[in-house]
Design goal:
With 165 residues, the protein is mostly helical. Helices cover 75% and strands 0% of the residues. The chain has 5 helices and no strands. Helix 2 runs antiparallel to helix 3.
Length: 165
């Protein structure tokens, strides 16, 4: 197998394993209301932050030096963001779950609006697409969803804390 196949296979199993950890077995039952998410411990938020900082430093230094540095940067950045998004807060209550749901909806609608509107214009206006953009376009979308989710979640959390004071 080539390096590219190892990268894609490893990323597939890593994403599959992390996602299967979050969904409990009852999630696939016939009653959709019994679906519950299991979050990572609070420590994983810090692991994700450290991973994001390290991989961004790696991406800045090695962006054009190796053939697969762009893909590796986006894969590990998404894993770090995944840890941050799906880790528990210090106080995990119904209000936090409501903010999480709103942040998920905003990030999903924002992604549809941005990529649905801009990507076709990008394809028609720029005729020569860089080959690495075609390889990591799905990773860019995942990174965008997770980033918008984090910004909205912490903005709503901060706004609610300021309104309560």
């Amino acid at each position: 197998m080539s390096i590219e196949e190892y990268i894609y296979t490893g990323a597939f199993f890593l994403y599959l394993g992390l996602s299967s950890f979050l969904l409990r077995r009852k999630a696939f039952a016939s009653d959709i209301m019994s679906m519950k998410l299991r979050f990572f411990p609070y420590l994983f938020k810090w692991i994700g932050i450290i991973l994001c900082v390290l991989i961004l430093a790696f991406g800045i230094v090695y962006w054009n030096k190796y053939e697969y540095s762009k893909e590796l940067t986006f894969y590990f950045l998404n894993i770090g963001l995944f840890f941050i998004v799906f880790s528990k807060e210090r106080i995990e209550d119904e209000f936090i779950h409501q903010i999480r749901l709103k942040a998920l909806i905003v990030s999903f609608i924002g992604t549809i609006a941005l990529f649905g509107g801009l990507f076709p214009m990008y394809l028609f206006l720029i005729f020569e697409i860089q080959p690495w953009i075609a390889r990591v376009s799905g990773l860019i979308i995942i990174t965008y969803i997770l980033t918008v989710y984090l910004f909205y979640f912490y903005y709503a959390k901060l706004a609610s804390n300021n309104s309560n004071d």
